[in-house]
Amino acid sequence: MKQRILIPTDFSKNAFNAIQYAMRLFETEKCEFFILHSHYLSGYSKDNLLIPEPSKAARKAEDEKAKVRMDKLKVQMEHYQSNKNHSFKYLSEFGSFYDVMKKTVEREDIQLVVMGTQGQSDKRTVIVGSNAVNIMEKIRACPVFAIPVNARFKEPNEIVFPTSFRTHYKLKE
Fold it and tell me: Pairing mode, if any, of strands 86-94 and 112-116?
């Protein structure tokens, strides 16, 4: 049975490093990798009724910008997709990062999320980015594996298992 692994991307070096790390970690296993980019219009919030929904033109422009960036990533990935055990699906969805991640985990029956610990902001003083922390806290349907900034692949001999003790874990986790 194929592993179903979700890797979110913001097209940063850290996100690309997480993709490469996951591919090496699971190089001997059959895997279906879902590379996901969620995009959103800055200033727009579903929670605030005072802010109007984005116009169709603004939404279309944002969708097109995301498509161009995803197409560039696909071209870049062609150099790394030689493993016959691996298949890739590229997803780009409009919505908040957390909402899109949660829906994708459920819809695609994802077994593991692999993500970089810092995204485009790449603040040197931050150890784990806010998106990684939020996903670790809120995604309950599967484990989240966070790849530290600039981590080079090495067979892991130690994995941190943070928990709030609010959930019952399965043996595979």
Answer: unpaired
Q: Which amino acid is at 139?
A: I
Look at the chain and count its residues: 173
Average the pLDDT over 136-143 and give the result. 80
The C-alpha angle with vertex 12 and arms to 158 and 108, in degrees rounded to 5, equals 70
**Contact residues for 156 (Cβ-Cβ < 8 A; gap 6+):** 25
DSSP 91-124: EEEES-HHHHHHHHHHHTT-SEEEEES--TT--T
Asked if residue 31 lies in contact with residue 85, where contact means CB atoms within 8 angstroms, the answer is: yes
Is residue 72 a contact partner of residue 42, using CB atoms and an 8 Å limit? no
pLDDT range class, residue 129, cuts 50, 70, 90: low
Say what the pLDDT of residue 168 is. Answer: 67
DSSP 61: H
Is the pLDDT score of 122 beyond 60?
A: no
Centroid of chain to Cα 18: 9
Task: Look over the chain and give the mean of its residue pLDDT values, rounded to a whole number.
Answer: 82
Q: Is the pTM value of this prediction over 0.85?
A: no
Encoded amino acid at 22, one letter: A
Q: Minimal CA–CA distance to 89: which of 98, 99, 81, 100?
A: 81
